[in-house]
Amino acid sequence: MADDFLIRFVTQQDHEQWLILWEGYNRFYGRFEATALQANITQMTWQRFFDAYEPMHALVAERNGQLLGLSHYLFHRSTIAIEPSCYLQDLFTDEAARGTGIGSALIEAVYEQAQQAGSHRVYWQTHETNTKAMRVYDKIAERSGFVVYRKSL
Asked: Which residue of 60, 83, 104, 107 is 20 to 30 Å from 8, comparing CA positions?
């Protein structure tokens, strides 16, 4: 149930538990062992959440002192709007807590933060194989129809 957990901003004291969730998120997307993120990337990501000059933010879901999920989002400029756009970059719920509404609550909390920042849109990506999450996303957002292309340099 959504009322038995709290959505809040991450704090420095959350690092150890956040790191477990972060590693779970990266493992989910195939970033582990030989393909794991370098430690300095994880360290910089963590530091950015506490730098007032960075547009990157983190929310966590907590129940009884235990972190169960995370969302990372950032604001950026756009050529098609004056107000900032909000990109929900990372969303992860501990496997044991999935299906309890935590993912949806984290997204709704990002919506609230985006509204407070003057943003009129929140958007995100997921892998096409993440069908379970997409069933949730289809209920709380609309598919844009855009296909993402990328090239590693």
From this structure: 83
Strand, helix or coil for residue 134: helix
Side-chain-facing half-sphere of 12: CA atoms under 13 Å: 3
* Model pLDDT, residue 152: 87
Question: What's the mean per-residue pLDDT of the chain?
Answer: 95
Indicate whether 61 pLDDT > 70: yes
CA distance 80 to 82: 7
Q: Which helix (H) or strand (E) holds 74?
A: strand 66-76
* Residue pair 69/60 in contact by the 8 Å Cβ criterion: yes
Residue 1 has what pLDDT? 44
Please state, in angstroms and rounded to a whole number, the distance separating the CA atoms of residues 76 and 56. Answer: 9
